[in-house]
Design goal:
six-stranded antiparallel sheet, alpha+beta, elongated, 9 helices
């Protein structure tokens, strides 16, 4: 990105961070100023207790994120299986119509033979006194044999196809039912984890909630500072591809919209819903879940990443964000949060993947 673009991102980062208590003075992700400690006479829980709460909430929301990936994967499979069942049903209907027509043709052939006195074509041929009629008839008999044989073969193949379609449809229906059960089980996991997290948060006093937000900010800033101090940003200077620019434009346009598990927009998103829809808008379909994005997309070294690339987080690939340049990402964090800009190093990075296959940059 150019200098002007960098300035715009830095400004956007500063504004969003100020609103979402991810602020850092000076440049967007410079070393943060330590937050003031609560006064000695404060009535709410000490920092060490709230730190335990923060870690517990992080654990619960990460469990919810893993379950969300399970839900999204099951939902995607169910959609594919439903489509396959519909296609098989269409084939069965067409096959039944074809079989009906073939049987009608076979019935017409049998009726014609009956009208001929029940004698097979060979008998009529032998009874012919005219040599030319005999020769012409011999040709017709051969053609008739081929036609009858072909008709019977087509009838048999159509019947076999129908039986196979029926078996395939039955198998797909079983898979669809299993997928729906997996989806329902994942939904229960998500709702359970989120309910537990909300219960923990609702038990806090207002001052404790504010201090907890400060602790979350401090943890993110500490991780980002360590990442920047490694000098990694000096090595990251890749320019976005044209598709990458479109994906970034889409993702950043969603800033401020709420996180909602299983959502793919346009009013709300979960983390992989945001990244998959952003790249879809850029003309590139990618896997729906963060785990499949990690498995299927091309891996890129962190120092080689460019805007539009996806940053995968945590050892289980349960979170994904989009790199937008200048050490920043845009992502849908978790339930209760909105889509925002954050530091790329504010969470443990598993790796980086590139959705667009081309290597050219602009």
């Amino acid at each position: 990105m150019g200098t002007g673009k960098r300035g715009l991102i830095a400004t956007a980062v500063a504004v969003v961070c100020a609103v979402t208590v991810l602020a850092a003075p000076g440049t967007a992700f410079a070393n943060p100023t330590p937050s003031p400690s609560p006064s000695a006479g404060s009535a709410f829980a000490p920092a060490k207790d709230l730190e335990a709460v923060r870690k517990k909430l992080d654990k619960l929301y990460r469990a919810a994120a893993r379950a969300t990936d399970e839900y999204n994967a099951a939902d995607e499979k169910a959609d594919k299986q439903s489509t396959q069942v519909v296609e098989l049903a269409k084939k069965i209907v067409k096959g039944q119509e074809k079989l009906r027509k073939l049987k009608a043709r076979a019935g017409a052939a049998a009726a014609a033979q009956y009208r001929g006195g029940g004698l097979p074509p060979e008998a009529h041929l032998v009874l012919s006194d005219d040599p030319q009629d005999f020769l012409d008839g011999a040709g017709r008999v051969r053609e008739g044999h081929h036609a009858t044989k072909g008709l019977l073969g087509e009838l048999a193949r159509t019947q076999e196809d129908l039986e196979q379609y029926a078996k395939d449809a039955s198998a797909q229906l079983k898979k669809l039912e299993a997928g729906r059960k997996a989806k329902a089980a994942a939904q229960k996991k998500i709702e359970k984890q989120i309910a537990q997290a909300e219960k923990v948060e609702s038990a806090l006093q207002k001052e404790e909630q504010e201090r907890l937000a400060e602790l979350e900010k401090e943890a993110a800033n500490k991780a980002q500072t360590a990442w920047l101090d490694s000098g990694i940003l000096d090595e990251i200077n890749g320019k976005a591809s044209e598709q990458g620019k479109k994906a970034v434009k889409y993702a950043t346009a969603q800033i401020g919209k709420p996180y909602q598990w299983g959502a793919e927009g346009p009013r709300a998103y979960d983390c992989s819903g945001l990244t998959s829809q952003a790249w879809k808008s850029a003309g590139r379909g990618i896997p729906r879940t963060s785990q499949e994005q990690w498995k299927q997309l091309r891996h890129i070294d962190v120092q080689d990443m460019r805007p539009g690339d996806l940053v995968i987080y945590f050892g289980d690939a349960s979170h994904v964000a989009m790199y937008i340049g200048d050490g920043a990402i845009v992502h849908a964090p978790r339930p209760g949060r909105t889509i925002t800009i954050a530091g790329a190093g504010s969470m443990p990075i598993l790796g980086v993947v590139r959705p667009d296959a081309g290597t050219d940059t602009n």
